[in-house]
Structure formats: structure tokens, C-alpha cells
Amino acid sequence: MAFKIVLILAIIFQFLAAGLAAWINTRYRWHSAWILISGAAVLMAVQLTASLASIWDLPPDERLDIPTWTAALAGLAISIMFLGGVALIEPLFKEIATAEKLLSHENRRLEMAVQENEAELHLARDIQRQLHPKGPPHAPGLEIAGDSHPAEYTSGDYYDYIELPDGRIGVVVADVSGHGVGPALLMADTRAYLRALCLTRSDPSEILTLANRAIAEDVADGRFVTALLACIDPVSLKMEYSSAGHLGFLLDPQGELHTLESHMLPLGALPDVVVGKSEPMLLTPGSLLLLATDGVFETQDRRRQMFGIEKAIDLVREHKEESAEHIVQVLFDAAHHFAGGAPQADDNTAVIIKIHGKSAT
After folding, report:
1. How do the domains of the chain map onto residue ranges?
2. pLDDT at residue 102, rounded to an integer
């Protein structure tokens, strides 16, 4: 009789363990491992039931041997430990479920924050795009086109066309060190300074000198702005320019390259300096000016080789008979193709000025 009670208890504990494992699966998560555990508990219960059935009809006074008793007691112990093990795991599953809920809530909160941040960055990009020229200036004899491609949502590059008080056209290209939101804000300040100065001044040296003082007061250490301001008379086709750490390039009608050198360090580097300017130069019809930021020339492929100034100049020279807008697009497309899928590391800006009119002597 005692032997039967041992087997019955073992069977009950096994079925309880199987039921508890199935309940844990249903409440928390359905794992194939738990299906196997439940199945194993049921099969052990079936095995014990078969053992019970095999001795059920034995006379009550019949003595069973020690190995049989040992197997029965071991089965009971296994059943108790099986049930206890499953029961002890249940709180762990409860903690995991609570942690998953908290993690899911935090993920949703982070996703919402990212979406809000992206919406704000999209808005910032749209606002910055509105600061770019709406179109080329009205300047018979000149064909001007430009564009800018930011490395991130916002850009530290700046280009503009400004009508000066003396009737000349001011074309400016500038590059704030770095890229992203911080340089974009400094770019907006630089644009505001230059546009305000150009309302009452026409001399490129004076304009950049005063802009340098204002920028030097605003920027933190290590921030600077390279800039080139070219002032072109659309009637006489005479040009003078000032450059603060920014190169420009002039292709004459024969395709010969003339570099527009810099006159001083970038804006913001030193507060009390005068930005020099070039001597007036006559732009021959058929000439072409390329003003670009270093992001174009320093575009790198996956082997970290640079696109380079020479390649850009050769490309412009090859397409110099086409429209200024087309040349700008060809330049960007070539740099993008050269990168070969490598991420854009810096903002890219380029302006092309083609000289068509007759120069006045």
C-alpha cells in the first residue's frame, strides 16, 4: 500500500509540474523549451502510472525488493524537485516580463523622441534651404549657377549672390569648419553679417574685414569660416575679390587655370586684421570661374583616396561649353560616383560663373 502511495504522489507532482510549465508558457511567452519540459513531465507521469498499474493487483502483503522501492522513491524525489524547479523559475519569468514591458515603453518613448528630433531637423534643413539664393542674379553677360549638398540635415556651407551698391554682383562662397547644427547656426550668422554689410559697402576687402571682426567675437576657439567674395561688374567684366582662407579657380578661354589665392587666415581666426584684396582683373568672354568648398575636392572613396582639385578642374574644363547649372550638377554627380557609396563626410557646395558678355576696355 505504501508503495502505491509513493507512486501516486510522484504521478501527482509530475502532472502539477507539467501544468505549471504550461501555465508559465501561456502567461509569459511560448517557448519550445517549455513545451519539451511539459512533455517530459507528462511522459514521466505516464511512466509512473504504468509502473503503478503493473503492481496494482499485487497482494497487499507481498513484499517488494529494494531496487523497486529505490526506483519508486527516486521517482517521487524527481517529481518533487521537478515541480519545485518549475515553481522557482516562475518569479524569474515575472521579472523578465516586467523588464520587457519597461523596455518596450522606453523604446516607444525613444522612437517618439527620435521622430520629433528628425521632424525638427527636417524643419531646420527646409529653413536653411530658404536661405540659399532663389535663383541667379540678373546680370546680362554672366551665367551663374550654384548648389549645396549637406553632409547631414543642415550645412555649414554658404553661397550667395548679392547686388552691391555700386552695381556690381557679389558672389560669395563660405565654409564653416565642421558640419551639422552648430556650423549651420554660424553659417546663418555669417550670411546675415555679409548681407548687412553689402547694403552699404561694395569693397570686398572692407566687407570681409568687418565680417571677420563680428565673427571673431561670436565663435568659440577652434571655429572659423573660410570665405571668398568676388565682386564682378557685369558691364565692364572687371572683377576683384577678397579671400579669407578660401581658394577659387579661373579658367580662361584657352582652358588655362589661374588660382584665386587667399589673402589671409579664415574669418574668426584673428579679430584685428585687414583682409586684403586682388587687383582688378578683366574677365575675358569665354572664361569660367569655379568657387567651391573643400568638401567637393576632399570627397573620399572607400580606399580613402580623394577626388581632388585636379580631377574637379579637368571635369569643369571638359564641360565648360555646357550650361553653368549643368556643370554644377556634373561636378556633384562625379564626386558622388567617385565616393562609390562611401558616406558623405563634409558639406559640398559649388558655384559656376560663365562669362559671356563683351568686356568694356
Report:
1. 2-124, 136-355
2. 82
Are 211 and 193 in contact, with CB atoms under 8 Å apart? yes
DSSP-assigned beta bridge partners for residue 230: 171, 241
b/e map 159-185, b = 16+ CB within 10 Å: bbbbebeeebbbbbbbbbbbbbeebbb
Q: For the whole model, what pTM was predicted? A: 0.69
**From CA 179, how far away is CA 260, in angstroms rounded?**
25
Spans of the chain below 50 pLDDT: 360-361
**CATH superfamily label, 136-355:** PPM-type phosphatase domain (3.60.40.10)
